[in-house]
Amino acid sequence: MNPSPRLIRAAEPYPQIRIEANPSSEKMGTLIRKAQIHVLITFQNTGLKLKLLNSLFAGRHVLVNSLMLSGSGLDALCHCADTPQEMIDQCNKLMLTPFNPVFIKERKKLLFPAYDNLSQAKHVYDLIYGND
């Protein structure tokens, strides 16, 4: 959201890079689904990030730094790189790696039911109303 002028200028020389400023929810969903790689970096170990879950549920390859995974238990679903060169190498590799049904099956095994909204809502309902 609200990309800085510095970021816009940095992307200008590269025809393969396009800054999408303030996309609608619908547009963001389309971008997430169509992106070959989601690169997520954090500099704070502050728990599970919603953008990580969103990328895993709706996107293809997810490339993160180790702080993004800290304590999440989602390491097996992501590619990890901590240096700029490692990021570049992983991006080059993942751009050529098809995202296939095997990856989706693995994600479902680890994401459901722990991170599924419907499953969690049922769990909360059962806690409140005493159903097991």
Features:
132 residues; mainly alpha; 7 helices; 50% helix; 8% strand
Could you characterize the architecture of this molecule?
- The chain has 132 residues and is mainly alpha-helical.
- The chain has a domain at 35-99.
- The chain has 7 helices and 3 strands, in the order H-H-E-H-E-H-E-H-H-H.
- It has helices at residues 5-11, 25-34, 50-58, 66-69, 84-95, 101-111, 117-129, and strands spanning 37-40, 61-64, 79-80.
- A 3-stranded parallel sheet has the order 1-2-3, sandwiched between helices.
- Helix 3 links the parallel strand 1 (37-40) and strand 2.
**DSSP strand content:** 5-15%
Overall spatial form = globular
Helix content: 40-55%
Specify Rg, calculated over alpha carbons.
17 Å
Chain-averaged pLDDT: 91
Helix and strand composition category: mainly alpha
List low-pLDDT spans.
Answer: none
Order of the strands making up the biggest sheet:
1-2-3
Number of helices: 7
Largest sheet: 3 strands, parallel
Write the H/E string, N to C.
Answer: HHEHEHEHHH
How far apart lie the N and C ends?
42 Å
Total number of beta strands: 3
Q: How does the SSE layout of this entry go?
A:
Blueprint: H1 5-11, H2 25-34, E1 37-40, H3 50-58, E2 61-64, H4 66-69, E3 79-80, H5 84-95, H6 101-111, H7 117-129
Parallel strand pairs: 1-2, 2-3
Describe the structure in brief:
This protein is mainly α and 132 residues long. It has helices at 5-11, 25-34, 50-58, 66-69, 84-95, 101-111, 117-129; strands at residues 37-40, 61-64, 79-80.
